[in-house]
Amino acid sequence: MIAHAHIVLAVALALVLLAFQRGDSQHRPIASLLAYLLIVGAGAVAVLRLFGLPQLADGPQLFLNAVWLLALLAQRGNVVELFRASGPRQSRLAILLRRETWI
Asked: Does the keyword field hold Transmembrane helix (predicted)?
């Protein structure tokens, strides 16, 4: 069951990255390279787990975890900042995470 969740999430990650459109923004080669490596890593995790080779998916999964760690370190551990949209439009997830009272 967890293997299926890994596959679905890895495919979703790759598809979201593939569907990104930068519009009028400037091309950033390093960001493009990182996005490409994330797509390849997520695709590798999905394909390797789909074909029953989860031990070979450890390398790509390690890369994805390292990117998460770097993103969190860049925000000094503030998870909400990872989901904040620039400009006046706020991410619904960031709004949800910022809620002070839950009950």
From this structure: yes
Calculated CA dihedral for residues 67, 29, 46, 11, nearest 10 degrees: 100
In which domain, by residue range, is 38 found?
2-98
Note the pTM of the prediction, 2 decimals: 0.77
Q: Token digits for 95?
A: 């709004």
Could you tell me if 42 and 17 are in contact, meaning their C-beta atoms sit under 8 angstroms apart?
A: yes
71 is a domain residue = yes
Q: Smallest Cα–Cα separation from 17: which of 32, 5, 35?
A: 35
User: How far apart, in whole angstroms, are the C-alpha atoms of residue 16 and residue 13?
Assistant: 5
Residue 70: DSSP 8-state: H
